[in-house]
Hints:
This protein is an alpha/beta fold and about 140 residues long. It has six helices and five strands. It has a domain at about 5-85 and about 110-115: Sugar-phosphate isomerase, RpiB/LacA/LacB (Ribose 5-phosphate Isomerase B, Chain: A, 3-Layer(aba) Sandwich), CATH 3.40.1400.10. The longest helix is centred in the first third of the chain and has 13 residues, at about 15-25.
Amino acid sequence: MAEVIPIGADHAGFALKERLKQELRKLGYEPLDLGTHSADSTDYPDYAHPVAAQVEQGTVGRGVLLCGTGLGMAYAANRHHGVRAAVAWTPEVARLARAHNDANILVLPARFVTEADGLEILRAWLSTPFEGGRHARRVQKIEP
């Protein structure tokens, strides 16, 4: 059974979200589109919270969010217990977010990455395992 990965975006991330869904399917994942479903203006928390809630509840292991800068989505998602949403603007940042911080939500700044870059960032994040070790101790210290 394919891993389900919820994905959400506001209007600024809508077009790239649609392309990332195709890539997720191509890579053997099952994207769960939690909106938005058009380029009409929306509020990013309306999409960040449903994706983050699924990670927080353990329904899924990870998710993807997109907005203009990535910052708003990360702020909202990181309010959820156990969520580590990381804004990644390069594949290297995505790899480090996974390897060192066990980031369980990838956040893409849709207005600042090209489609090709977004796809490469997604692939890097999906394929990088958490290293554990000293990083596990640090991740445990994130929660108060």
